[in-house]
Predict the structure of Oidioi.mRNA.OKI2018_I69.PAR.g11617.t1.cds.
Amino acid sequence: MKLFGFTLATVSVAQFAGNATLVDTPRWGKQFDGPACFKCEGNNWEECRAQAWEREGGPISCREDKVCSMVERRRGGKIYRVESRCKQVDVCKMEREHNLRPCPQMPSATECNQMETDHNGAETTSVCRNCFQAPEHFDEQEAFMNKIDAAAAQNGLPLSEWMKDSFYGN
């Protein structure tokens, strides 16, 4: 019965993926011709990219109905976790809008912020997200990661940089 369920699930996924354009790749056989994206997570963007090269051989291609999502988490102004992966367009856009939500610790700040501490001196948290859609925007993704790395001393990029539509693709 488990084998039947697995086979049915595989066929369903294959039928759904059948609508996407596929290209031949020497390493993995078939690859989707959607946005390019590093599939990784780490303690900083450099570690994340290194993981993507080690595990996947570099950036992967998302399905055409997905975008590349980038998430950075900070505590006390310092990066402690980053991730990049393919996500559905509507999910990534919704999460990106969460950058503007009020911070739970301090309603006067947004969820994506550059603060180190709140008014009580406690370390604040920050979660910033962005989406990249078109395959030709991969250079912009890498430039964005480099910009984040360069802004580390200033507690990261300002919210306005995370919300720029030029990185959106649409």
User: Anything to note?
Assistant: Confidence is low (pLDDT under 50) at residues 3-30, 166-170. DSSP finds five helices and eight strands in the chain.
